[in-house]
Design a protein that fits this description.
Blueprint lengths: L8 H5 L4 H9 L2 E5 L3 H13 L3 E5 L17 H6 L3 H12 L4 E5 L8 H4 L5 E4 L4 H14 L3 E7 L2 E7 L7 H4 L12 H4 L3 H20 L11 E6 L4 E6 L15 H4 L6 E4 L4 E4 L8 H8 L7 E3 L2 E6 L2 E6 L4 E4 L4 H11 L3
Parallel strand pairs: 1-2, 1-4, 2-3, 4-5
Antiparallel strand pairs: 5-6, 6-7, 7-8, 9-10, 10-14, 11-12, 12-13, 13-14
Helix pairs in contact: 3-10
Bound molecules: zinc ion.
Amino acid sequence: MTVPSQRFDRQIRFAPLGQEGQLRLEQSRVLLVGCGALGGILAQSLARAGVGELVLVDRDIVEESNLPRQVLFEDVHAREGTLKVTAARESLARIGGPTRLEAHAQHLDADTIEELAEGCDLLLDGTDNLGTRYLINDYSVCNDVPWIYGGVVGSGGLVLPVVPSRGPCLRCVFDSPPPSGTLETCDTAGVILPAVGAVASLQAGLALRLLTEPCQTEPPLRPALLEIDVWSGSLRRLELGPQEGCHCCGERDFTWLEEPLGRRATILCGRNAVQVRGVGESPDLDRLAEQLKPLSSSLKRAGPILRCEIDGHVLTIFQDGRALIEGTDEVERAIALYDRYVGS
Ligand SMILES: [Zn+2]
């Protein structure tokens, strides 16, 4: 495998990376969960750096309110309700370079993570979903694959690189997610692009370092919790060790990987929406459209997506059987609507 010398010249000149590091990047496979705000910048950073394989996972579609901070998307994607992974792959492909892109319009959960993360050297968090982060953390510790947490809200956020057996895992720092509604989210407190950029760039920098670590001469990275704010211009670094008795990395209790509860439905924090997965085979969208037509005057079919309004809820049904139920944050209600209109 060779590295095009001109394309990557400037980063190869950066001594801690060097030619060997560049080759290492080109042999790396990275799973990126979420292609929105953090995910867009992460994807772009890694693709431009020449990472070998980028596995993109996102279940969502592009909306107009994404455009001020989700750098891979354009007006046309929002107008057409394009899947985020599809739009992201298009934008990344235009950058060119050696990176092979895999796009999965899927929900990452306990059933799908094994397959999606298979063979990956690093997992990157570009989500805004706490449950997904705990799942990634369980997978990371269980399989000894590093991951990098990133969270952003308002003008700042947190970054935590998790390198199993070398530092704390997510559950060492936050043992369990706080009850819903207690944390500020981007939907309640807003968010600005520079904050997203700062958090994602910290993640991306640490990603390049972790991926090329085996060929570096300097000591291995010492994981720390990083807190950054672009409004006050502050950066805090909190050195933490693994917590004795941590449920995940201490007792190796992988609740989020093993717990079947909640697999079927995910509350989308702050969006008054629930994502529900079918338990049977994927639906036939043509047939479903015919069935739902008499019930909804707003029914719209756009390629692999069916969208309609029923009972005051907007249902977006995807070809793989997932549906986004907007207008409720109750799992039971969302599953009931799914089962009634999409079929269980
Ligand atoms: Zn831990």
